[in-house]
Specification:
Blueprint: H1 2-20, H2 37-59, E1 76-77, E2 80-82, E3 90-95, E4 99-104, E5 108-113, E6 119-124, E7 135-138, E8 147-150, E9 154-158, E10 166-170, H3 173-180, E11 186-189, E12 192-197, E13 200-205, E14 212-216, H4 220-231, E15 244-252, E16 257-264, E17 271-277, E18 282-289, E19 296-299, E20 303-306, E21 309-312, E22 318-320, E23 326-327, E24 333-339, E25 342-348, E26 358-363, E27 369-375, E28 379-386, E29 389-396
Antiparallel strand pairs: 1-26, 2-29, 3-4, 4-5, 5-6, 7-8, 8-9, 9-10, 11-12, 12-13, 13-14, 15-16, 16-17, 17-18, 19-20, 20-21, 21-22, 23-24, 24-25, 25-26, 27-28, 28-29
């Protein structure tokens, strides 16, 4: 008993000693988390500020943003449909019964309804090298496909009805390697291919079989020069001693003939376009011209444009224009004009296009301009632009 009293007395003395030294003894309830008074004070202040800020936001008016300036289409007069294009660069176009097929320079294929302009589908040719695409044509040689895109090393067969249907036919490796050096240097017709090589223009099956040299490079000057001089004698056909090179080649007239553009190597001092008959093995006509532009063909499978000259490949007859018209079939022609109030698009034929023809489209807004981006059997595709904004429209001309 005496020991217990003594122990309690000693403990009392020690507690009083610690208190006198400034030590604080706190009893902590284990059921509550530890939190200092200062921390509680900060928490209350933060909460008060947060509630105050929320109250301000609730009472204040909502922040108003400046409305984005809408893209306004210049007013157009005429019969046209505005296409829901994506703003990419249009490279080539094809017309089918109820749709308009567009091949973008970026490699996308898109289809649009010809009546409403709405986009039906769009997809990217992920398995092809779009940087070397140079032609898109209607092609029903393969069953189930109705058009094709030509690449430097392959031909891609596609369906306008089913965008998921794709068949790729690779060119033989040696042909692809040769074609890689030159753009627009081969053409296909059904299962046949003609291409430009160092030896000249060759022809064979798409598989690479049954090939032969159709037009040797060394013969081009001797065979084309006399015809070109006779047919187009107002220009001087320059022979600078350089070997001739072929610049572009294409089947024409149902695959029975070949049209080629040639020029002199390195110096490019002359240009000429010529028509070659496969069966007879002879050139039928050739025209020399002095514009530093390539000839354009084929239109309606029988017309060749050489500068301002339009030649009927079947007959060799031609017409010279004063202006630079555009055509898809050799009978309907188009040209754009510019006025202070905007642009004008005219449609005509051989006779009246020189006098502008019939006004097809017109804008009445100063600063708006346009150019022809493609011509199909019944429509002309026009890119209308104003500053950095642009739109694509199709106008029916038939």
């Amino acid at each position: 008993m005496k020991k217990l009293i003594f122990t309690i007395f000693i403990m009392f003395i020690l507690v009083m000693f610690f208190v006198s030294c400034g030590w604080k003894v706190e009893i902590v309830d284990p059921r509550e988390p530890e939190e200092s008074e200062s921390e509680l004070l900060i928490s209350k202040e933060e909460k008060t500020e947060e509630e105050s800020e929320n109250s301000k936001q609730e009472n204040s008016e909502p922040e108003t943003k400046e409305p984005e300036e809408e893209k306004t289409f210049p007013p157009l007069s005429g019969d046209y449909v505005l296409l829901e294009t994506s703003g990419q660069t249009i490279y080539q176009v094809l017309e089918f019964e109820d749709k308009f097929i567009v091949y973008y320079g970026e490699g996308n294929i898109a289809a649009f309804d010809v009546e409403t302009g709405e986009k039906i589908y769009e997809y990217f040719l992920a398995d092809v090298n779009e940087m070397f695409a140079f032609d898109m044509v209607k092609n029903d040689y393969k069953e189930g496909f109705d058009f094709s895109v030509s690449m430097w090393d392959r031909i891609v067969y596609l369906s306008s009805e089913n965008p998921e249907k794709i068949e790729i036919v690779f060119l033989p490796e040696d042909i692809a390697k040769t074609v890689y050096q030159k753009s627009e240097s081969y053409s296909i017709y059904e299962d046949k291919i003609i291409w430009i090589s160092k030896e000249g223009i060759q022809i064979g099956d798409i598989t690479g079989e049954n090939r032969k040299i159709l037009i040797p490079t060394g013969d081009i000057l001797n065979r084309i020069k006399p015809i070109a001089e006779k047919a187009y004698d107002e220009l001087y056909f320059v022979d600078d001693g350089e070997p001739c090179v072929f610049y572009e080649v294409s089947f024409i007239c149902g695959g029975e003939k070949v049209v080629v553009t040639s020029t002199s190597d390195k110096t490019f001092v002359y240009w000429s376009a010529a028509l070659y008959d496969i069966e007879s093995g002879e050139f039928e006509w050739a025209y020399n011209y002095n514009e530093m532009v390539n000839s354009d063909y084929p239109f309606a499978d029988k017309y060749v444009a050489v500068g301002k000259k339009w030649i009927n490949a079947e007959t060799g007859n031609y017409k010279n224009f004063k202006c630079w018209p555009r055509s898809a079939n050799g009978t309907d022609f188009f040209r754009t004009g510019w006025q202070n109030t905007g642009f004008e698009l005219y449609h005509g034929d051989f006779e009246n296009i020189e006098e502008n023809g019939k006004l097809l489209l017109k804008t009445d807004r100063e600063g708006a301009d346009a150019y022809i981006d493609g011509i199909t059997e019944n429509y002309v595709l026009v890119h209308v632009y104003e500053g950095e904004e642009g739109w694509d429209v199709i106008a029916r001309y038939k």
